[in-house]
Write a structure and sequence with these properties.
The complex is a heterodimer of chains A (542) and B (132).
Chain A (H helix, E strand, L loop, with lengths): L2 E5 L14 E6 L3 E3 L5 E6 L16 E4 L2 E5 L9 E2 L5 H14 L6 E7 L6 E7 L14 H6 L4 E7 L5 E2 L2 E9 L2 E2 L4 E4 L10 E6 L1 H5 L15 E2 L4 E14 L2 E9 L3 E4 L31 E5 L5 E6 L6 E12 L2 E10 L8 E6 L5 H4 L8 E11 L5 E5 L4 E6 L6 E6 L5 E23 L16 E19 L5 H9 L3 E6 L5 E8 L14 E8 L7
Parallel strand pairs in A: 6-7, 20-27
Antiparallel strand pairs in A: 1-2, 2-15, 3-11, 4-9, 4-10, 5-6, 8-9, 12-13, 12-14, 12-17, 16-24, 17-18, 17-19, 21-24, 22-23, 22-25, 25-26, 25-27, 28-29, 28-31, 29-30, 30-33, 31-32, 32-33
Chain B lengths: L2 H13 L3 H7 L2 H11 L13 H17 L3 H5 L4 H26 L5 H18 L3
Classes of the chains: A mainly beta (542), B mainly alpha (132).
Chain lengths: 542, 132
């Protein structure tokens, strides 16, 4: 089965959404024979005295490919004549330059070298295409050359042959552990004439896989760390050869690849470490799935979540727990821990850790007098003597309590790396009702000469086809410190706003922002993000 | 990289006794260069793709063979399609083993090299257990 899987996505680390999700195969299954280029050599000289070419006389003829070339000893070469010098090297070079000038030989590479077989100077022609040349036979007036004392010591030709290809394709289908997640597709094996012995088939499953993963929407009532089962998906590929014989497919063996982990995270191209800091990596503290700063201020009643990749690594392994530490002005006030337990004990998935002041693990356990608190995931490590020790699994997140009197809206948006991040808008700048109007005409009541109905019935009517409430919000000042935060917000694919129902229950509502240009820096100005959003539900009309 | 550049690179790595470096350049594109240049047919599959434990065993055998090679031509014998995936697995294995060694050295283990090999192997067995 000459089709080999030669590369696949990473096995030991999750594969993110940006970039190709690539399986590569090498195959020569589509090639019956690779063909060859035409090669001609014309050696000049003689057997008794190599390097010496006995000059031919003016008017002697050399015919090649049906073209007659004439010996003219007055000039080295033209497009149809050459000087048959006593030096076989000079003669070979004259012939080569003559052939280069001639239009009939433009499809050949022409060179001069010593022929390895005859040890004579020779002209070599090689075709650029693998085709059979019917007009490259030895058709020469060699007798005339010989009669006048000139000599061509050797002539050889290996005619070109076209490659012979088979009607071949490769089928492939993407699977997850529960079954196929894509339809069966076919890929062609490209044939490159200058690279004929092997073809690379690249199968990119990114478009299929990215539709399988997403981040579960935030839960205001979350009481402990929970696994986000939608953030990641194990996928693999099944593929194989198809040879079409009279359009009937003949299937070869099935290639089943190893499963790879695909996750709902993207990285910008300048973030060259990609997922590496977010997965087990030795002694380094694993980064939460965000690029927000470790140490931030937070409002007194704000929700915040962060995802973290949990995996039983080599140095940091289960059991895992989240540790909250609350500090006041006098130091540590209290510590609160919650286990991270995977029922299947497999881990290898993202977990959502609630870290905001309004999230229940913090709200219910934060002692009075807290000025800041830290959140960290703790793992266990096995020492050389087999004893175990608690060890930091993650970086430490610090949140410092701040007064937020000017909070007009609290919005949660999906970050590049797949966590929910909170953005606070300070002011509601405006509120609008946007409508799409339709207008129509009805006939006037011309018979009402008294007038009451003439002015109320008929004429132009209009009505709203749809109406939406639009809110225009203004952010805090944008600086280099928080600019990336707002740039991620405006490109985020999904966002929710904190809201309450008429019975007072806290809920989140999905919102849409205008997809347009947002300025996050302006020289000499205080920059704020002014963003208009609307709900995903329209206003109901009468 | 041309075939000649690849040969020179391999010679440099042989001079430096850098077998891990050879694993790093045993990539699909370099394999394709060798196959096309030497007009070699693609060989038979030798690696079961889904079995990480088997891949690890094949990687260890490949590493030993490359470690024993003393000439460029002896190394080029392994620039074949059937070894490319093994080498890719090897690159992930080396990365894991390297950062484990660093962690164990920092932690003061008495024989961090041997321990990192044991733990890396155990880690890939764990990953293998998650395969179907």
């Amino acid at each position: 089965m000459p089709t080999q899987l030669v590369s696949q996505p990473l096995i030991n680390r999750p594969n993110q959404k940006n970039g190709p999700l690539l399986w590569q195969f090498l195959t020569d299954e589509h090639i019956i024979s690779v063909g060859r280029f035409l090669e001609v050599s014309i050696a000049f000289g003689n057997s008794t005295n190599p390097g010496v070419f006995v000059a031919a006389a003016d008017g002697d003829i050399l015919v090649l490919r049906g073209v007659s070339f004439t010996v003219d000893n007055s000039v080295p070469y033209t497009a149809t004549t050459f000087k048959a010098d006593i030096s076989s090297e000079d003669t070979a070079r004259n012939v080569a330059e003559m052939l280069k000038l001639n239009y009939q030989f433009k499809d050949f590479s022409i060179s001069v070298d010593i022929d390895s077989d005859s040890s004579q100077w020779a002209v070599f022609l090689k075709s650029y295409e693998k085709i059979i040349y019917s007009d490259m036979d030895v058709v020469t007036d060699w007798d005339a050359l010989l009669m006048t004392g000139g000599s061509v010591y050797g002539f050889s030709i290996l005619n070109g042959l076209p490659p012979v290809l088979r009607d071949y394709k490769m089928w492939y289908q993407v699977f997850d552990p529960s079954g196929p997640v894509s339809s069966m597709r076919r890929a062609d094996a490209p044939f490159l004439p200058n690279y004929p012995f092997v073809s690379v088939i690249r199968i990119d499953a990114n478009e299929t896989a990215r539709g399988l993963v997403y981040t579960t929407r935030p839960d205001l009532l979350q009481t402990e760390p929970v696994a986000d089962e939608n953030y990641q998906r194990l996928i693999y590929l099944k593929a194989g050869n198809i040879i079409l014989i009279n359009c009937e497919p003949q299937f070869g063996e099935v290639i089943q690849t190893a499963q790879i982990m695909f996750v709902n995270a993207v990285f910008q191209l300048h973030e060259t470490l990609q997922f590496f800091p977010h997965a087990p990596n030795g002694n380094l503290d694993i980064r939460f799935l965000t690029n927000r700063r470790d140490d931030l201020s937070i409002c007194g009643n704000a929700y915040e979540w962060v995802h973290i990749w949990m995996e039983k690594g080599i140095w940091k392994t289960a059991p895992f727990k989240v540790q909250y530490k609350f500090y006041g002005t006098s130091g540590l006030l209290d510590t609160f821990e919650q286990d991270i337990e995977d029922d299947t004990d497999n881990y290898r998935k993202a977990w959502v850790v609630p870290i905001g002041t309004a999230n229940l693990p913090v709200a219910n356990n934060k002692p009075p007098g807290t000025t800041y608190y830290t959140v960290q995931v703790i793992a266990t490590r096995v020492l050389e003597d087999e004893s175990t020790l608690d060890t930091p699994y993650s970086q430490i997140i610090t949140r410092r309590l701040a007064s937020c009197n000017c909070k007009a809206a609290e919005v949660y948006y999906l970050e590049d790396r797949g966590s929910w991040r909170t953005v606070i808008f300070e002011k509601l700048e405006a509120r609008e009702t946007r409508q799409v109007e339709i207008e129509f005409e009805r006939e006037l009541n011309w018979n009402d000469t008294a007038g009451p109905f003439l002015y109320t019935e008929g004429g132009t009517y209009n009505q709203a086809q749809l109406a939406e409430a639009v809110f225009i919000l203004s952010s805090e000042k944008i600086t280099e410190y928080n600019r990336d935060h707002y740039e991620q917000f405006v490109r985020s694919q999904e966002m929710y706003i904190r809201s309450t129902t008429e019975t007072g229950r806290e809920v989140i509502r999905r919102i849409l922002i205008e997809r347009s240009t947002y300025r996050t820096f302006e020289r000499g100005e205080v920059t704020r993000l002014i963003v208009a959003f609307r709900f995903n539900t329209k206003l109901q009309l009468q | 990289m041309t075939y000649q550049e690849l040969q020179a690179e391999i010679q440099d790595l042989l001079d430096a006794s850098d077998t891990k470096g050879i694993i790093q350049i045993l990539t699909p594109i370099n394999v394709a260069i060798v196959i096309a240049t030497e007009e070699i047919q693609i060989g038979e599959r030798v690696v079961p793709y889904t079995n990480l434990t088997s891949l690890e065993s094949d990687y260890n055998a490949l590493f030993a063979a490359l470690d024993a090679a003393t000439t460029v031509n002896a190394v080029l014998l392994y620039f074949r399609a059937e070894y490319a995936l093994t080498a890719q697995f090897g690159r992930e294995y080396i990365e894991t083993e390297d950062y484990t060694l660093e962690a164990l050295t920092d932690a003061g283990f008495s024989n961090p090299e041997a321990e990192s090999q044991v733990r890396t192997s155990a880690y890939f067995s764990y990953l293998n257990s998650l395969q179907i």
